[in-house]
From TrEMBL:
It comes from the Bacteria. It holds the Pfam family DUF945. It comes from Marinobacter orientalis. This is DUF945 family protein.
Length: 425
């Protein structure tokens, strides 16, 4: 009997406790989202919490990073409280207007957030198929149903993201753009500060652009794969990104495949986190500069720049390497190949405090090769390459043009031509 009473008591009290925790969690998330980046703010208005549920409203303010202009969008949510978690169902307010009814006449987009007391959350967004036609302009937009899911655990320290978008077609009297089969899968794991680990895959089956009096341009089988890992003690980062494109078709002529890889190795975690944070603060200051105290903004930007300098010195002191170890682009006249890599050796502990510059110890190499016929068939490209050939920076080897260089001692040696570099950082 005592056990039964205890279970009953828990069942009665649990929805109230879950509702209270859910409100606190949502307010915390809204604050953190707004403070962690400068592009949009998530604000909560009236939060009316009851025993088994709650209702609240809010506003999302989106800022244009180029102009600083802001646009506000209202939202509302219904919350259901359970024994171990809550379900939030978001929707547009009824006063959103006829524009929403025009785009979604039958079924509306659905956004839900399911939370649990132990720090997990499941976000799901479903957007129904859209078909809009403006007869007065001849413009139309058709989009298939899309789905996005984010499975968050560890109190926000881990996330698995999935996005599926089968396609869309945009038509205008002089233009047609079609997108087919977009897919994104991303895993994120928080390491420290602003640093996240994980791997991701993004793919797009086809992008086609057809404009009047222009050849149809089509890109097939685009893919981007990336992975970021840390060493065993979590002090340095390695990352690799590979971009591939199976073919490009223009004027009924196809050529491919294309590949490009980017890597960085040995980035010191604390310095990388500080660099990322400083860049974000600098961007925020730039967006807030309009209408604000110009001296305060300038001071903030100077402080961010100093943090960037110190972070760069920290990265260099521990040593790193980065660049493009593989670049291969197909053309109708032959491949364009290249490699660009830069590295900085670790600095002995007794010398770190005396470091003044990063560039001084940088070394690197670059090599780019392209078919001569490509330059000959495109006069605009030939006008840019011709002075480089005359200066000896680009050399001709048979039917190809080559540029090969090394970086050392603040100088870039390209095919025997020494180019001094200014000291940076």
């Amino acid at each position: 009997m005592v056990a039964g009473v205890a279970v009953l008591a828990v069942g009665v009290v649990a929805p109230w406790a879950v509702g209270y925790v859910t409100e606190q969690q949502w307010q915390s998330v809204a604050t953190e989202v707004s403070q962690s980046q400068p592009l949009f703010r998530l604000e909560t208005g009236d939060y009316d919490r009851g025993y088994l549920g709650a209702d609240f409203t809010g506003t999302i303010t989106v800022r244009n990073p180029e102009t600083g202009n802001e646009h506000e969008f209202d939202y509302q949510a219904r919350v259901s409280h359970g024994v171990t978690g809550s379900l939030m169902d978001f929707s547009l307010p009824s006063e959103a207007g006829t524009r929403v009814e025009e785009i979604f006449p039958d079924e509306k987009p659905k956004l839900t957030l399911e939370t649990r007391l132990w720090g997990t959350a499941l976000i799901e967004l479903s957007i129904p198929a859209v078909s809009v036609l403006r007869e007065e302009t001849g413009e139309s937009f058709d989009m298939s149903e899309s789905y996005t899911r984010a499975d968050i655990s560890g109190n926000g320290a881990h996330a698995d993201i999935l996005m599926l978008w089968p396609g869309a077609v945009i038509r205008a009297p002089d233009l047609r753009i079609s997108i087919e089969d977009f897919r994104l899968e991303q895993t994120l794991e928080h390491l420290a500060g602003e640093v996240w680990l994980g791997d991701g895959d993004m793919s797009l089956a086809r992008l086609e652009v057809a404009a009047r009096n222009e050849p149809v341009l089509r890109f097939d089988q685009f893919a981007l794969r990336s992975e970021t890992t840390a060493d065993d003690d979590g002090q340095s980062l390695d990352s690799e990104t590979l971009v591939t494109l199976e073919s490009v078709t223009a004027d009924d002529e196809s050529f491919g495949p294309h590949r490009m890889a980017f890597v960085f190795n040995g980035l010191e975690v604390q310095s990388w986190s500080e660099l990322t944070s400083a860049l974000t603060d600098m961007q925020t200051a730039a967006l807030d500069s309009e209408g604000g105290d110009s001296r305060a903004v300038m001071q903030q930007q100077m402080e961010s720049m100093n943090r960037i300098n110190q972070a760069m010195l920290g990265l260099a002191a521990d040593g790193f390497s980065l660049g493009f170890p593989e670049m291969s682009f197909a053309t109708p006249y032959g491949p364009v190949n290249g490699e660009i890599m830069v590295e900085h050796p670790p600095v002995p502990d007794e010398e770190k405090d005396r470091m003044m510059m990063v560039m001084q110890r940088l070394t690197g190499n670059l090599e780019v090769s392209m078919p001569l016929a490509l330059v000959e068939q495109h006069p605009e490209l030939g006008m840019q390459v011709a002075p480089l050939i005359k200066q000896g920076v680009v050399e001709r080897e048979g039917g190809r043009l080559r540029m090969k260089g090394t970086l050392e001692d603040l100088a870039l040696d390209i095919n025997g031509n020494l180019i001094p570099l200014p000291p940076l950082f």
